[in-house]
């Protein structure tokens, strides 16, 4: 995109604030923002795993069931209803969960296995280990079907042209 996507304007606000307002429409109690607008990566350059690793470092193990929802900043067409559905089913199944054909958004129960995996991977030199697909497979994640006619909501914007298509559908 040639710039930090989080700062692109949508509905007269930066994209990261737009996505935050989307999360505020849900029942999530805490939101941790990874990146320049929130927590900088402890170990940068490892893709989404860097941000997840940093966020997990800020969530103490309190002995209760905890989970995270990873939501990319560049997916402005996703709805709070789709996020709540994902989290509700993830909580019910007690497993990492995402929609068919889309690794994000991603529901992850916080487990010792998740913490250990992210800690190990951020120290890897091989970029193949930074993949969310590998993380999901390692944790034996599962998928749920995308509701009818909702595939377009999972579109993300990685180019100016994709951004314009997203804006047309907001």
Question: What's the gist of this structure?
Answer:
The protein has 170 residues and is an alpha+beta fold.
The helix content is: 25-40%
Kindly report the spatial arrangement of strands forming the biggest sheet: 3-5-4-6
For the biggest sheet, the summary is: 4 strands, mixed
Q: How many strand units? A: 6
CATH topology type: Spore Coat Polysaccharide Biosynthesis Protein SpsA, Chain A
Keywords: Cytoplasm, GTP-binding, Magnesium, Metal-binding, Molybdenum cofactor biosynthesis, Nucleotide-binding, Nucleotidyltransferase, Transferase
Protein name: Molybdenum cofactor guanylyltransferase
Organism: Kistimonas scapharcae
InterPro entries: MobA-like_NTP_Trfase, Molybde_CF_guanTrfase, Nucleotide-diphossugar_trans
Structural account:
This protein has 170 residues and is of the alpha+beta class. It has one domain: Spore Coat Polysaccharide Biosynthesis Protein SpsA, Chain A, CATH 3.90.550.10. 36% of the residues lie in helices and 11% in strands. It is built from six helices and six strands. Strands 3-5-4-6 form a four-stranded mixed β-sheet, covered by helices on one side. Strands 1-2 form a two-stranded antiparallel ribbon. The longest helix is centred in the middle third of the chain and has 14 residues. The radius of gyration is 16 Å and the shape is globular. One of its GO terms (molecular function) is nucleotidyltransferase activity. It comes from Kistimonas scapharcae. Pfam families: NTP_transf_3. This is Molybdenum cofactor guanylyltransferase. Keywords: Cytoplasm, GTP-binding, Magnesium, Metal-binding, Molybdenum cofactor biosynthesis, Nucleotide-binding, Nucleotidyltransferase, Transferase.
